[in-house]
TrEMBL record:
<dbReference type="InterPro" id="IPR046883">
    <property type="entry name" value="T6SS_FHA_C"/>
</dbReference>
<dbReference type="InterPro" id="IPR008984">
    <property type="entry name" value="SMAD_FHA_dom_sf"/>
</dbReference>
<protein>
    <submittedName>
        <fullName>FHA domain protein</fullName>
    </submittedName>
</protein>
<dbReference type="InterPro" id="IPR000253">
    <property type="entry name" value="FHA_dom"/>
</dbReference>
<feature type="domain" description="FHA">
    <location>
        <begin position="28"/>
        <end position="78"/>
    </location>
</feature>
<dbReference type="InterPro" id="IPR017735">
    <property type="entry name" value="T6SS_FHA"/>
</dbReference>
<feature type="compositionally biased region" description="Low complexity">
    <location>
        <begin position="166"/>
        <end position="207"/>
    </location>
</feature>
<feature type="compositionally biased region" description="Pro residues">
    <location>
        <begin position="112"/>
        <end position="126"/>
    </location>
</feature>
<dbReference type="Pfam" id="PF00498">
    <property type="entry name" value="FHA"/>
</dbReference>
<dbReference type="Pfam" id="PF20232">
    <property type="entry name" value="T6SS_FHA_C"/>
</dbReference>
<feature type="region of interest" description="Disordered">
    <location>
        <begin position="110"/>
        <end position="235"/>
    </location>
</feature>
Amino acid sequence: MTLTLRIENFDSLPDGGPLSVTSDGNDLQVGRSASMDWSLPDPQRHISGHHFDVSFRNGKYFLTDVSTNGVFLEGQRHRIEGAHELKSGERFQVGHYFITVSLGDAAVAAAAPPPQQVEPPQPTPPVVDDNSDPWAIGGSPAAPIDPNPRSDRSGFDDFASDFISTPTAPQPQAAPATAAPQPAAAPSPFGGSGSPFDGAPAPGAGPVLSRTPPTAPTALPIATPPQTPAQPAGGDAVLKAFCEGAGLRMPAGATTDPEAFARELGRTLRGASTEVMAMLQDRAAAKKFTKGGDRTMMGAAQNNPLKFLPDVDQALEVMFLHPRDGFMSGGDGLTDALADVRQHQVAVFAAIQPALIKLMSKLAPEDIEEALDGGLLSGGKRKAWDEFVRRWDKMTTSHENGMLDVFLSHFAESYSKATKGSGL
């Protein structure tokens, strides 16, 4: 049996490696390390060097998680424990990769059903005709036409077409005419469907007809009550819960459509989460560019899905639909992420001034002259020095904080140009 593991959420890997691995009964080692049978590159190092093993025993493949951060089956909150038998069509997550499982026998099993669908021959209708059942009436005349409706319709469409087809084929009515009057009474409501009088004696004629009327009334009550009176109550409950969660006071007499309200909340949440994830990525890029601060690493608990999951779909699913061990749930992820972004902004502006003061103090003419310890420059060097002092004094004389104010003035001008037209 052949096993294939394939990454489905990436078109290529950063190192140009393969997106899939195949085993013909061989064991596999998978992880971040280049020495693995299948290497999964991960600059964030969420994936362990040796993350999981695949073994082949008794004609079956088993996955064993040996990592720090775990292997998660789709829809499961907890990581895989022990040896897990792999099944075709399964989907699991390793770091930011989603991997699907394919087994070689899946194609053989899928090819078996079609011949079974072609097997039912046409000799079956004569047997059904003896029962004087409306289902038999729909089956016998529709023998040559049967392939078309089955390919185009299914379910309730086929059910209705059986009854509609009987008036178009009056020939089968000759057989009930030669038979006893009892079988003729059964097809009459269907053969004369256009007559209201033919439908009246039908309920007492056969048990099958008694099954048809109950389905109609049962469908009507289900469709009739659209829960119109219940909507205000449900809407009030949803609105009340929203106000409690948002710390707002419930407006007097306020009502809302719960479906529309929930849809708008979902749209708003997705938009906010998308922007927050982008800000977190910009924050990480700034820290990497300046080589300042420690990189956020994944821990054993309270990991923020907006930071560690690859896209907003997976982050929202973990936060609100399928909580996962080790990750924040609910609105805690958004709150934590926004707090980090705000702290990053404060830290950036707090670091600018001290850094510039430290830099400019080394370039101030008085500091340079002090460093020369009274030494004198001569010739061209002296002229260059005098020009430097003149320019420095010209830039700093009119500012209380010297060169720092000059920089902040240029910074404000550049910021204005960068944000012009962006709505900031």
